Amino acid sequence: xxxxxxxxxxxxxxxxxLLLVGLMVFVPLGLITAFHPPEGFDSxxxxxxxxxxxxxxxxxxxxxPLLGAVFYSGVVAxxxxxxxxxxxxxxxxxxxxxxxxxxxxxDIALIFVIGFGFLLLIVPGxxxxxxxxxxxxxxxxxxLGVRAAFRRSRELVRPHLGRVICIVVPxxxxxxxxxxxxxxxxxGLLGETFLGNWLAAVIANLLGAPLYAMxxxxxxxxxxxxxxxxxx
Length: 232
Hints:
By secondary structure, the chain is mainly α. It has one domain. Helix content is about 85%, strand content about 0%. The chain has helices at about 1-35, 50-85, 90-95, 100-120, 120-130, 135-140, 145-155, 160-190, 195-230. About 35% of the residues are buried. The model has no long low-confidence stretch (mean pLDDT about 80).
């Protein structure tokens, strides 16, 4: 299967980058997500002087993982661009130039769009999931805005809808299984402790994030190549 070969080649070409940047991003993020308010405090007691602390914790645990995921996805995209087109960008350049705001807004909008699709029925939800699966590569590589990225992703996917569904849906299931296996292994090793939760978050992200990003990017480049061939 071409898409499997593309992903395998991507891992073989970029495994050092994926691991290094994954550790740089997910180790500190795992530390943040593993932190919970001290035991003995009820949520109703987080008032007065403690309220700003609670707000800071919630904001940090929500915003930083989004930024980390966006940055990691951007690094993966840059690695694939180098492999496909010979375009080379350093990590510093990627960190400075990634359209963080656009990617985060697109992620939030995508959650609502797909959620709305599943509220209608399962089939519309799956179709929306497939239509908009290429939004991140489109924003990262073509530098489009949120609305334009939604249109562009659907435009790319529509002629290949069945194939994209057959890739994206199993991909999400496999990603979830890998993340769950990583979390279970970490918890089994260290128990339901702070270190256990930290290791679980790190391993889950290291297993799931590159698989999803690499597969979606491979799908994007494959569809893009077909689109260009059809124009010739």
